[in-house]
What does this fold into?
Amino acid sequence: MKRTGFAKAECPVARALDAIGDWWSLLIVRDAFDGLRRFGDFQKNLGIAKGMLTARLRKLVEFDVLEVVPASDGSAYQEYALTKRGRDLFPVVVSLRQWGEAHLFARGEAHSVLLDQAGQPVGRLMLPSKAGRALTWSDTSVRKVAARKR
It folds into this structure.
């Protein structure tokens, strides 16, 4: 079965999923936030097949989430660095982390913890209204693009 592409979808969520919506891509981005930069480090940490990793890294570079840069140690290797577009995924990764913490771990079950620079756990993300009030899904609506006439 051929996968449907959403690159031209009118929905921003569909387009975002088209770019970075598979689990390997998000885990690569997560690892990049954790400081990984080299192909071998991504491969070792994720246990992903080399061909699959190559394809995902290529797509992340194509979508300007990662960029290929010279190795930071001056060697002949190349590394992958987050671009601004990639760094802008940080709240998405944190949101997924916090959802997982809240819903996929038993009370008291050990898991990694995201800390701020002072060593304190990061607070829960919230979606604020323009006035600063926390919004839930029931406080929002989506204005759809008007149907195109043929």
